[in-house]
Design goal:
Shape: elongated
Order of helices and strands: HEEEHHHEEEHHHEEEEEEEEEH
Largest sheet: 6 strands, antiparallel, barrel
Radius of gyration: 34 Å
Structural class: alpha+beta
Number of strands: 15
Distance between the termini: 46 Å
Oligomer: single chain
Helix content: 40-55%
Number of helices: 8
Strand order of the largest sheet: 4-5-6-9-8-7
């Protein structure tokens, strides 16, 4: 290989390395990347070539970030070809994955803002923590009670051991055969009871130790989830076509159960938050989300009651619907699903009313969603 060929190979490798690094780390807003050769023949890569050096552009980050794959709105529109306002609205709905499960959300601007519930991205912080701690505390109390029962069983075995020792001594000391026979029968009966009790206590102790390990693991897992949740900013969101992309937590609502995420570098389908739609009782509405892990699901019902803080409907709502949109038959956004109200003591799957946060509350919490989007 000649010196010129070796030099060309080195340049090619350096260029490939620069492309790899830039593709992995540079955000779409970064300027172009140039290369230049210094007096020693070494190649350098920079966004600002120094004066006096001949340079050429090796990568335009802005151009690389553009393309058909970044236009999610057009891609989903072409793939699903929605025929109704309801189907059109589903293009904007996503599944949001968190440390303990998943919920729903939806794009509310064309440049990637996602509305969801705070409890979807901070489930432990927003109420689940107390429930999980209470469940673990109850298990720990059960363990303590079982430990007390085990101690009683072990104490009874010790008492039986003393009685067996006494009977054994009586048999060796007694000079009368009839007395020895009676003592021996008592010893044998007690010995059988002792062995059976010993086996029961051993099995009880084995099960108790298993339960203790389980409870300890549950406590450790909860502590770990708390640690992870406290610092987690990135979340996987699943689009209608199953594609997963990363979204970043921007802020949580100060008063309402709301959170705002954002994906960067995409043009997205969205549900507008600007309009205040009249909500008379009996208005037909639709709830979109991922209940019980069933992605892209739609249920319907009517508005039953409206308060300044909440919208109640009889539309079916289950775990996983949280954070999804509530819309009219025209596809107009009216609220963000937040919870299901059921009778005290009933399971969440029981009949009840769906509760949503009015879209006006989201506008107040996150003014950015009403601003004109920046070009991406």
């Amino acid at each position: 290989m000649t010196e010129d060929q070796r030099q060309l190979l080195r340049q090619t490798r350096l260029t490939a390395l620069a492309l790899l690094v830039c593709a992995a780390w540079c955000p779409p807003a970064l300027p172009d990347i140039y290369r230049y050769q210094d007096a020693n023949g070494d190649w350098h890569f920079t966004d600002t070539p120094p004066p006096g050096y001949s340079s050429d552009r090796v990568l335009d980050i802005a151009e690389e970030s553009k393309g058909p794959t970044t236009d999610l709105a057009a891609r989903l529109q072409a793939k699903f070809k929605p025929a109704t306002p309801i189907e059109q609205a589903t293009l904007a709905v996503v599944t949001v994955k968190n440390s303990t499960g998943e919920g729903s959300g939806f794009f509310c601007t064309s440049d990637g803002h996602i509305l969801t519930n705070r409890h979807v991205v901070r489930p432990l912080e927003y109420g689940q923590l107390a429930e999980m701690q209470a469940a673990i505390a109850k298990q720990e109390q059960e363990v303590s009670s079982l430990e007390a029962s085990l101690a009683q069983g072990q104490a009874k075995l010790q008492q039986m051991e003393h009685e067996l020792a006494s009977l054994s001594a009586m048999m060796s000391q007694s000079g009368h055969r009839s007395a020895q026979d009676g003592t021996r029968e008592a010893y044998e009966r007690l010995s059988e009871s002792y062995q059976a009790g010993k086996n029961r206590v051993a099995e009880f102790e084995r099960k108790l130790n298993f339960m203790k390990r389980h409870v300890r693991q549950a406590r450790d897992d909860l502590d770990w989830k708390q640690t992870v949740e406290a610092v987690q900013k990135a979340f996987d969101v699943v689009l209608k076509d199953g594609t997963e992309i990363s979204a970043f937590l921007q802020e949580t609502g100060p008063d309402q159960d709301l959170a705002l995420l954002e994906v960067d570098g995409y043009r997205t389908p969205f549900l507008a938050t600007s309009a205040d739609v009249p909500l008379p009782q009996g208005l037909r509405v639709f709830v979109i989300g991922s209940p019980l892990g069933m992605q892209d699901s739609v249920t319907s019902g009517v508005v039953t009651q409206v308060t300044p803080e909440s919208i109640f409907t009889d539309a079916q709502m289950l775990p996983g619907n949280s954070g999804g949109p509530v819309i009219t038959d025209k596809g107009e956004l009216v609220g963000i699903s937040v919870a299901k109200s059921v009778a005290t003591g009933d399971a969440v799957s029981a009949e009840g009313f769906g509760k949503a946060i009015p879209v006006a509350a989201a506008r107040r919490a996150f003014p950015v969603i009403t601003r004109r989007p920046k070009a991406k």
